[in-house]
Amino acid sequence: MEILELDGIELAIERRGPEGAPALLLIAGGAQSMDWWTPEFCDLLGGGELQVIRYDHRDTGQSTTSKPGQPDYTGDDLAADPLRILDALGIEKAHLIGMSMGGGIAQSIAVNAPERVRSLTLIETSPTGGDHGELPPPSPEVAATWEEPEPEIDWADENAVINYRVDAERPYTGPLGLDEARVRALATLEVRRSRNMASSMANHFIAEPGNSVDPAEIRVPTLVLHSADDPMFPLPHGEALARAIPGARLVRLEGMGHEIPPPAVWDVVVPELHKHLGRT
What we know:
By secondary structure, the chain is of the alpha/beta class. The chain is about 35% helix and about 15% strand.
């Protein structure tokens, strides 16, 4: 892992695979550090042929943090960070894989800087703009998390924070359910590695949103991976993306929820990604 100092901020990154090989940049969702892209998943994706790069968004992991409830950046800043990383590493263009908020960031880059994108993969995300018609809302369980008062957390109590981080994932699971041991292990790693979990869990969602883009303007090869059971962005969100982007291919996943693909679906996800990444 290394810390890049870029335009007055610090972004933590990790590179796996052969340096100099075609790059694959993984962009996580809101409130997610790089830890949710597990090393095992990264190595499966890279297969020794790609340089796989994961990073901590601002306010997650070891990257720059702002005060809880006071993000000093906008959604456009978050969308510019992947290009800052590629510039710092001397990488002209990369495959982009974005999940949820990361998928919105990836759409923005593909529209505004298409020359930097080899291919695009959008996981459990939604069109950030354009004419997509009415799309279904999140499940009542997910919606309730925004309406209920936040629990009182002692951010100095590691066990309490880990429990809170695990519980935050529960409403977003699909029929496969929550793999308690796996999610707790990832949450523990994230909590112990992060500069400020209070900022991590709040600031992305209250930062000024970035400018929207129309996915119909995307012209790079695009794969849309979307679960039939996503409780945050139900399947029609993924279907709308695939319809909007010329030549995009939609792969419907079964069982997972609103999450970076867990091991239970790697037997489908990894071959589909290899096919997509290998042909571009």
